Amino acid sequence: MGPQLETIRNHFIEGMSSMSQFWGFPRGMGTLFAVLFTHPGALSLDELVTRTGLTKGAVSTNVRALARLGLIHPAPRMADRKDYYAAETDFYKAIRSILAERHNSEFDRAVTTVKEALRELQGLPVSADEAERKFLVERLQAMQAFFDAVDSLTRAVTRLDSLGIHTVQNVLKILK
Amino acid sequence: MGPQLETIRNHFIEGMSSMSQFWGFPRGMGTLFAVLFTHPGALSLDELVTRTGLTKGAVSTNVRALARLGLIHPAPRMADRKDYYAAETDFYKAIRSILAERHNSEFDRAVTTVKEALRELQGLPVSADEAERKFLVERLQAMQAFFDAVDSLTRAVTRLDSLGIHTVQNVLKILK
DNA sequence: TACTTTGTTTAGTACATACTAAACAAAGGT
DNA sequence: ACCTTTGTTTAGTATGTACTAAACAAAGTA
């Protein structure tokens, strides 16, 4: 492999690393994914250590996180004790996986927070600050409606087993 | 205002703060927005200081950031030197604003990175590692296609001057 | 059983960043 | 002109976290 090609590849890898940290993921995750993505076939943890410059520990944890997100997947080889991983090349599949992951974690908690607040407000005895209470209920209901819409969207996307450019184009038709 | 109502409101504010930091924004931003959102009418910086417990400096910078994102907006009062801010209650408007903001910052840089790498690869002289080069081009093109799709989507949304539940429902029809 | 190979976990470190406190700037009011 | 009010900027601090280094675990091999 020529020096030119290697330079281009490294530049790309650095770009993915920055992007990773911008989106709130560890820098190392971006590096690891980029290395796997620009490599045909699977790589072992040791190979990832040498290619990324990260330590075994970092590679171990970040690789697991990437697999959890569905951005990479194990590619086991028989009669080999090593763990091999390959990049997921179907981005739409990865996106669905990421959405599903994030969905179950924190987004639901936010939705629940609003729901709970509303329920508590409804159960409040009528008192002097009825106007204030009504105002709060109104605002929270607006927020809940918005959350519900987002919720429906992400659920629809994650349920979709085929999401590709074709689907995107159809959506675009509506939005324009 | 009864103690009950105050408790519920505070609980909600804390929830928004957590959500804020989960999505990569400072905790204080979530606090400030929640305080404004649960208050009818506008608030001055000083009032925000007392209500959030943050210092003047933090309120100043975070409020500006929120305004930049379109999540709150100035609500000036004539014959008053103070700056007043109110929450943006139209979430879809806010979403469009946030998308536009993020779009111009880092997403474009990632897209450019891929584009550049591809251009450099195309301009490479044919050499021994032609197979490797072709492989890289293929992968990067796939990534570019995906980025283009996302790009089109966000652009479409940000251009939209009316995005509401109705539009979301239409999109849902396609996705199901 | 001991040794090697592989991956995980943990203790510690370095770094980024959101915040506080205080100096500063700007603009009105007296 | 001077003081007060309001908001911004800056220097310093504290907290979280991604990483390194090294101990540990597990499982095959001699």
Plain-language structure description:
Two copies of one chain form a homodimer. With 176 residues, chain A is mostly helical. Helix content of chain A is 72%, strand content 5%. Chain A contains seven helices and three strands. In chain A, strands 1-3-2 form a three-stranded antiparallel sheet. The radius of gyration of chain A is 23 Å and the shape is elongated. Chain A starts with a helix and ends with a helix. Chains A and B meet through helix 1, helix 5, helix 6 and helix 7 of A and helix 1, helix 5, helix 6 and helix 7 of B. Chain A binds a DNA duplex (30 and 30 nucleotides) through residues 26-28, 44-46, 54-62, 64, 81-83.
Key phrases:
176 residues; mainly alpha; 7 helices; DNA-binding; 3 strands; homodimer; three-stranded antiparallel sheet
Concise overview:
Chain A has 176 residues and is mainly alpha-helical. Helix content of chain A is 72%, strand content 5%. The first copy, chain A, starts with a helix and ends with a helix.
Tertiary shape of chain A: elongated
Q: In total, how many beta strands of chain A? A: 3
Oligomer: homodimer
Distance between the termini of chain A: 46 Å
Task: Summarize model confidence as the mean pLDDT of chain A.
Answer: 91
Radius of gyration of chain A: 23 Å
Sequence of secondary-structure elements of chain A: HHEHHEEHHH
> Most extensive interface, residues per chain?
A-B, 59 and 60 residues
The structure class of chain A reads mainly alpha
Helical content of chain A (DSSP H or I, runs of 4+): over 70%
How many helices of chain A? The count is 7
The stretches of 5 or more residues of chain A where confidence is low (pLDDT under 50) are none
Largest sheet of chain A: 3 strands, antiparallel
| Spatial order of strands in the largest sheet of chain A | 1-3-2
